[in-house]
Amino acid sequence: MKTTAVRLHGKNDLRLGTFELPQIKDDEILVKNVSDSICMSSYKAAIQGSDHKRVPEDIAENPIIIGHEFCGEIIEVGSKWADKFKAGDKFGIQPAINYQGSLATPGYAYPYCGGAATYCILPQEVMVMNCLLDYKAEGYFYGSLAEPLSCIVGAFHAQYHTEMGSYEHKMGIVEGGNCAILAGAGPMGLGAIDYAIHCDRRPGLLVVTDIDQARLDRAQSIYTVEEAAKNGVKLVYLNTSGEDPVADLKALTDGKGYDDVFVFAPVAPVIEQGDAILARDGCLNFFAGPTNPNLQAKFNFYNVHYASTHIVGTSGGNTSDMIEALTMIAEGRLTPSGMITHIGGLDAAAETTLNLPKIPGGKKLIYNHISLPLTAIADFEEKGKEDPLFAELAKLVAANNGLWSVEAEKYLLANAKPIAE
Q: Residue 82: exposed, middle, or buried by beta-carbon count in 10 A (0-12, 13-18, 19+)?
């Protein structure tokens, strides 16, 4: 079977091409990739090439398929897995397979397995490590967002707290406590807001900050103060571009500080701001993945010693985090549509990946079987004046508070130009 895929051949060298997939082995599974959202981690792999820890050294001769936030349909199942999976089933992928200590991961290390492809072959280690997951929700794009959501789930679970006189770590955020998501109006921050107000262990106060008021306004229109209140959470959106953001943040807690702080930007002043607002036994989670290997920030070690403040860092989620995200999506408890700001076809994936930091907005969602320039959802109405496809998409997203939807996805897949193979 032929596949059309975006492959990494070297640093900044992504190419879209069509090639033949080998016949699957008894311990492999052939899948159709319908959607794949683009992660900043793919950008890092693309610009670093073989210098990236997960990317093989021989990609010039054996290029790898990029993309790891993919969702689709099982096409053919090798005999080893016939009792567990069947053709026609929808799937999600946990790419962090951690097989036998290897860093090899779909989207980074495999010539035939990655999200930016019309079809790909899942190697046996994906199934051995229980990383091929059943997916029950209706829209494919939700499955693509489950992987980034699993990173958020993992971060919330990685938080820990103690009691004076005890060395036992109590895992998770403080239920009913004070929680801050700093630089939290971006796509991953939006996912964190959604999870914080709808998960089983919720804070009493949730403060979301940014220095861009337009981003804060958009976040508030998607995840409203009223919706949070229904779930027992006091939600506050705060612009921290003022003279003393630390004082402004502390004032919201009557000076107590925050039990849980999540830093969603790899910027030293934001990290230091997070440290400065920690309560006693407060836990700071450095969530944002930096590109600078020498990123450093000041941390108050007087408070580490006397106030038991501490820091954790998480990178990705595990399989149980992914299952939790998929389950909450299927149950309608998470609606991560707000994370998506752009839609494109497979022929837009390479350029989008290489220029990801320069493109404003949130998640860029790729549909692998169509040809479509990367387009901001906010531009649908204007483009619809000349293109009936966008005119109808504009109506569909307008009916969903300006957000991407299952109805919009169905219409796009049924009416967009197919990708050339």
A: exposed
Distance CA 33, CA 167 (A): 46
Contact yes or no for 266/315 (Cβ under 8 A): no
C-alpha 100/C-alpha 36 separation (Å) is 26
- Helices of type H across 268-405: 268-276, 301-306, 319-330, 349-354, 380-383, 388-398
Sort 346 into a burial class: Cβ within 10 Å, 0-12 / 13-18 / 19+.
buried
Burial class (CB in 10 A: 0-12, 13-18, 19+), 34: buried
Q: Does the model's pTM come out above 0.70?
A: yes
Task: With CA atoms as reference, report the closest residue to 88 among 70, 76, 103.
Answer: 76
pLDDT digits (tens, 9 = 90+) for 24-48: 999 999 999 999 999 999 999 999 9
Residue showing tokens 């397995």: 113
- Quick one: which of 326, 224, 308, 314 has its CA closest to 259? 308
